[in-house]
Design brief:
Elements: E1 8-13, H1 18-32, E2 36-43, H2 58-78, E3 82-88, H3 98-112, E4 116-120, H4 127-139, E5 150-154, E6 172-175, H5 180-188, H6 203-216, E7 222-230
Parallel strand pairs: 1-2, 1-4, 2-3, 4-5
Antiparallel strand pairs: 5-7, 6-7
């Protein structure tokens, strides 16, 4: 990935925290090279922890507000100013017409006019991640004039690594050694998502993945992506 002042990078993520997990270091790197960055969250990320349909409790409202505040703090650390929050229920994207998701993504692309897009990959346990990928795929039909010329998918630690098969197969690696401290700092904002090591969602677990992906290509730390389309 090459970033410069003409790069307009759009991240389409299912939930707040996916942007840090999947491409937090890459976001910081892009901004360092003067790229414009926008993050779009399609869903809220909390409701899966509650009984189905029971989303009117004070606790639900409290945690939803907390998650949004955590995302805003994390994005400030990364340097992102442009963000859009969706309200779709967590792990229930399959209950919404996929056309409605596709239309939302199209509207963001029409408005932002990205040159590059990062999103989820289809090899994920979380159904919201898979549907996000499918909706992006549909929205990025090459006949649409606002579709970016470069599209990559990222991995979400645990959701992807807990797949039986098939696994995510990256073919692009972004060196984030210099940007790891900000990624780690942004991740600490998501206090409700923290887990003790050896869980993947511990800071050490996240760093272990970055080291492993870096070792794959002979560098210290990397974020891994799969190029799904690029027009040269």
């Amino acid at each position: 990935m090459d970033f410069n002042s003409k790069t307009r990078l759009l991240i389409i993520a299912a939930h707040p925290d996916d942007e840090v997990l999947g491409c937090g270091g890459t976001i910081v790197k892009a901004l360092k090279y003067k790229a414009q960055v926008e993050v779009v969250f399609l869903g809220e990320g909390i409701s899966a922890r509650f009984p189905v349909g029971q989303y009117d409790s004070p606790e639900f409202k409290k945690l939803t507000q907390q998650r949004r505040k955590e995302a805003q703090q994390a994005l400030r650390i990364l340097g992102v100013k442009n963000v859009h929050f969706g309200k779709r229920l967590c792990v229930q994207f399959d209950t919404y017409p996929i056309l409605s998701i596709v239309k939302d993504i199209e509207e963001r692309m029409k408005s932002f006019r990205p040159t590059m897009l990062l999103t989820h990959n289809p090899s994920e346990v979380n159904i919201d991640h898979r549907i996000t990928y499918e909706a992006v795929e549909a929205a990025c039909r090459p006949t649409n004039p606002w579709v970016p010329r470069a599209i990559y998918t990222f991995e979400i630690i645990c959701s992807g690594n807990w797949k039986f098969d098939p696994f995510f197969k990256p073919n692009v690696f972004v060196d984030i050694e210099k940007y790891w401290p900000k990624k780690a700092m942004a991740w600490r904002c998501y206090k409700g998502e923290q887990r003790p090591f050896p869980h993947f969602r511990s800071e050490k677990g996240l760093e272990t993945l970055a080291i492993f992906r870096g070792l794959t290509v002979g560098i210290s730390k990397a974020e891994a992506f799969r190029l799904v389309r690029r027009i040269v």
